[in-house]
Design brief:
The protein has 309 residues and is α/β, with parallel strands linked by helices. The protein has a single domain (2-177, 208-235, 269-288), classed as 3-Layer(aba) Sandwich (Rossmann fold). Helix content is 39%, strand content 19%. It is built from 10 helices and 15 strands. The strands form 5 sheets. Strands 3-2-1-4-5-7-12 form a 7-stranded parallel sheet, with helices on both faces. The protein has a two-stranded parallel sheet with strand order 6-15. Helix 2 crosses helix 4 and helix 4 packs parallel to helix 5. The structure holds nicotinamide-adenine-dinucleotide. The site of nicotinamide-adenine-dinucleotide has 25 residues, from helix 1, helix 4, strand 5 and strand 8.
């Protein structure tokens, strides 16, 4: 299949490109930045909001993965208008490009578990499936922008017959992670002896997902069974922030210094999000246990050039 990946030069997108190339697909990376990992595929430098360029790129495409977005929630907080413009606005532009290119390509959106909203940890225990309603009062701009992106997919399906798939990611970790995400920060801090800042008491959990497993899940969403469906693609286990630190201490053989600070506004507390549907319909589940994947990641990170603080 001919598959276009917007944001294919980024953290998750580069792994998705790798998996799709291994599967023998014709891959085109569409991004503002050139691919950094020598993928043997076509590259189109372009802005997701450039509908004409996207329309050209989508000619004869079977699938477009829409991963380009402002993925950094802190930058979203700092620059909401710009961030929404490339996230919800970028999704809308990509969908319009699908329509203008003949409506043949299926649009596969990278969304997030954040769309289920945050609840106090005390109220957790809830088991979330794709049927669980959207957060009624999303408490982060990023969440609202991703909810809008999801609705745009559904609108383009209802109004113009464009097929879609929505993937709701947990928090990915692994090789090529952006330096400002939690795991690389923790690794650098433990190695340099600097204190690790934990918002709240460290008991907040995430279902971390190893990025290579996530990329396999994204690739599985290219299957025809995924048409007009929503899938949670998440880790099988809840991991607390403190547990991340303890796992890294063991792998690195070094104790962490920890500073606890006040909890963040809109910090998703985490309930259990089921990825059963992806297992049942697509045969996908994460292959690696959290600690095992973390070990692989740390090994990759510590290979030269060594990460410095
Ligand atoms: N990383 C996470 O924790 C996480 C969790 C859930 C969902 N997601 C979603 O997954 C997707 C990928 O996230 P990531 O972590 O790989 O992000 P990333 O920042 O590593 O990659 C995003 C890519 O998009 C490109 N891009 C940005 N603006 C663009 C534009 N206007 N036109 C074209 N390309 C543009 C960037 O150059 C970059 O290569 C995003 O949609 C994000 O919201 C990420």
């Amino acid at each position: 299949m001919k598959i276009v990946i917007t944001g294919g030069s980024g953290f998750i997108g580069s792994h998705v490109a790798d998996v799709l190339l291994e599967q023998g697909h014709e891959v085109v990376i569409y991004d503002l930045d050139a691919p950094r990992y020598s993928q043997p595929c076509a590259f189109v430098r372009g802005d997701i909001r450039d509908i004409e360029r996207m329309t050209q790129t989508l000619k004869d495409a079977d699938i477009v993965y829409m991963l380009a977005a402002e993925a950094n929630v802190n930058r979203f907080f700092e620059s909401p208008v710009f961030s929404n413009d490339i996230t919800a606005g970028g999704t809308l532009s990509a969908l319009e490009a699908v329509r203008r290119s003949g409506g043949r390509a299926r649009a596969i959106l990278a969304s997030t578990e954040w769309i289920y909203g945050s609840v106090p940890e005390a109220a957790s225990g809830e088991y979330i499936t794709e049927e669980t309603p959207y957060a009624q009062n999303p408490d982060h701009l990023y969440t609202s922008s991703k909810i809008a992106s999801e609705f745009f997919c559904k609108n383009y399906n209802g109004l113009y017959g464009i097929s879609y798939t929505i993937m709701r990611f947990g928090i990915p970790f692994g090789d090529r992670a952006r330096a400002e995400t939690v795991t690389p920060i923790f690794i650098r801090r433990i190695l340099s002896g600097e204190p690790i800042t934990i918002h709240g008491d460290g008991s907040q959990t995430r279902q971390f997902i190893y990025v290579r497993d996530l990329a396999r899940g994204c690739a599985a969403c290219a299957m025809p069974e995924a048409e007009n469906q929503i899938f949670n693609l998440n880790g099988g286990k809840k991991v607390s922030v403190l547990e991340i630190v303890r796992t890294l201490e063991e792998i690195l053989g070094k104790k962490a210094a920890i500073t606890f600070v006040e909890d963040r506004k809109g910090n998703f507390k985490g309930r259990f999000i089921s990825s059963e549907k992806a297992l049942k319909m697509l045969g996908w589940k994460p292959q690696l246990e959290y600690a095992e994947a973390m070990r692989l990641y740390v090994e990759a990170t510590l290979r030269p050039p060594v990460v410095s603080s």
